[in-house]
Amino acid sequence: MFHYFDIHLIYVKCRNYSNFATLVQILLGLQSPSVSRLRKTWSRVGTLELKFLDELSAFTSPIKNWKHIRDNMTTVAEEYGMSPTEIQIEMPGTGTLRGIQDWVNPKAKIKIPFGGCIPFLGIFLSDLVFNSELPSYIESKVKQEQGELTRIYNIHASQTDDLSSVQSQPLVNFHKHRTTATVIKRVLIFQNLARRYPFKPKTDLHEYCDKLNSLDPDLVRKLSHYIEE
Fold first, then answer.
1. 10 and 52 in contact (C-beta within 8 Å)?
2. What is the CA radius of gyration of the chain?
3. Residues 6+ apart with CB under 8 A from 208
4. CA max distance for the chain
5. Burial of residue 69, with CB atoms counted within 10 A of its CB: 0-12 exposed, 13-18 middle, 19 or more buried
6. pLDDT over 70 percentage in the chain
């Protein structure tokens, strides 16, 4: 089973690189019914490992609308969203000489990507699903004889006009459209942040992963029962 340092190393890597997607996917896999039911297997896991897993599970929990991971992702977006895509750093061991000899050992500076992040997009999909259930238009309940609105309409219309048809028109639900725009804007920010990593793609590894076949859910469930026999 898992060793504490393996789990902790994965967490540290995900945290350092702001890779929320991988962290959530690993935790969701460990909490799936086919894995969580393995009582004999989990009994062999140490107390320290289980405690750390509980802490990670709480961090990635969907309770309170994914509060913990949402807050962390928001912090990253606000901190790095408007920052430069690259930063310039001085390489160690360079630029140590001064004066006329600087040209012998000049300061070597390089630019590296800055502020990479891979978000857990499930949060934004959830936001859009719930927001889509809101009505795009709200039925108007304004009556012709009600105060200020009627007075404003009367400025632009004659007293003999029938204002009921105007006042009964549905109102645009700007809150819904504003929420949709906010979610899309945040996704675009993270899309930009995901391109900031300094890693170079490994073509052979990518091709290997593309050829991997996922196990059928029924087979996973059967194997889960088989292991516990």
1. no
2. 28
3. none
4. 92
5. buried
6. 71
The predicted structure's pLDDT at residue 167 = 64
Which residue is it, tokens 């990253």? 76
Q: Could you give the 3-state DSSP secondary structure of residue 118?
A: strand
Name the 3-class secondary structure at 110: strand
What is the C-alpha to C-alpha distance for residues 89 and 111, in angstroms, rounded to an integer?
Answer: 6
Euclidean distance between CA atoms 174 and 138, whole angstroms: 10
- pLDDT of 143 above 70: no
Residues 6+ away with beta carbon under 8 Å from 72:
20
Angle between helices 63-80 and 122-132 (to 10 degrees): 120
Percent of the chain predicted with pLDDT > 90: 21
**63, part of any domain:** yes
149: amino acid identity, one letter: L
- Domain interval for residue 213: 7-123+194-227
Structure tokens at 162: 């029938």
Domains contained in the chain, number: 1
Please name the residue that has the structure tokens 């902790």: 8
Q: Is residue 176 part of a domain?
A: no
Backbone angles phi, psi at 19, to 5 degrees: -95, 80
What CA–CA distance (Å, rounded) separates 224 from 34?
A: 6
